Amino acid sequence: MKNVTITDLTQDGDGSAIVDGRKITVPGTAPGDQVTVSENAPPIIATSGPNRQDPPCPHFPACGGCSAQQLAADRYTEWKRSKITDALVRRTGMTATKAGSLVANLMTTKGGERRRADFAAEKTKQGLTLGFHQRGSSKIENIGACLVLRPALNDVLANLAPLLNKIMTGGQRLDIHLTECSNGIDATLRAVSGFITRQPDATTTKQLAEFAAANNIARISWRADNNHATSAVPVILRETPTVRLSGVDVAFPPSSFLQASATGEAAITGAVMACLKHVAKRKKGSRIKAGQLAVQLDGLAVADLYSGLGTLSLPIARAGAKVTAYDIDGPASEALAAAAKQSGAAIKVTPRNLGSQPLSAREMSNYDVLVADPPFHHEWVGPMKLGAVDTARRPGAIVYVSCDPETFAVGAKELADAGYILRRVIPIDQFIYTRHLELVALFEALPKK
Description:
The protein is an alpha/beta fold. It contains 10 helices and 23 strands. It has helices spanning 73-92, 96-102, 151-167, 202-214, 262-284, 313-318, 330-343, 361-364, 382-386, 405-417, and strands at 2-5, 8-9, 15-19, 22-26, 34-38, 41-47, 107-108, 116-124, 127-133, 140-142, 172-181, 184-193, 217-223, 233-237, 242-245, 248-251, 301-305, 322-327, 347-351, 369-372, 397-402, 420-429, 438-445.
């Protein structure tokens, strides 16, 4: 048993301290806390430091959903923003002063806004456990409600246990993915273990239908095994779920990607559009009248890499740009193509695996701007090809959307090596209380020598 003072934070938001010459991590603590630690017991906070607040959730820190609820607002904001500045310093070699000047103030979201979530359920002899996984464990923390979720998702969560007790038997595990769409909840149940890779029988299907009707669930799909490559099969369809993106209704395939909150989506879209309007204004130059506020993207050729349902493609096209949307997700690409046709947006949808088939140098030279929003921890290989593009023909700008500052900083170094300069970074805290951080960055090609 030792008494220590927490001096720093880890990337996950846990407190850390130096004990006997080595760094230890103490979850649930903040810099300045006086803590008693021992090997086989939770830490005891003897005195709270100035960077601490009372965690708002009773499941913290056991639940794996959040890792930084103990941080006071100012220290929390500083920690989040430093995730980008520190990564840029480490990965690109720029000074801390330079990195700090490029990263804007943190844009924040609030609790109660998350519109999608993944829950876990397990049935044993002791009963049903339903909630989120505990930190670093396969054990499930029973959750009755979550403070970061939209009320509609908490309402479904509150009513799930009776249904699962009916359709699950001992030794079975399910993952439940819920997304709040414009016209109801989209739910996907994935059999993790104990279901012998089968579809629901007639009795289970009837119980699912009754649950959907009583809980404003538009569709329930079932993935009958633990293979992530297996498509989810709709078993209950009351209405095709749709989401509204930039004023356009888009069909929502089962378990498709959607930004975690409407506020986060608006912040990301707004930041991307601001970057593109900056590029368009520079491209048009003197044709922009003094005092003109609205800068449209007329004629701008944009490639949207990892376009998904069109969260970015639709607003970019509706502002006048000509967009080519690339994504490996076939159902999402089909939904975007249908929405673009219905709305009249100038979007060419091109299904493509950008991981194995990135844009060639010749293809990239057809665009004024590349917009890239790769999946979490996905290595965007595009920048490595840019060095081969003729300086006079390469894209004039790249708008990079990332949910991992470390991966982003690696890409920033590659872009710098390819002749691009980082102009601005807008951090967006869509996943509050977690280690995750969204950002939108603008890179511009250096002038031809």
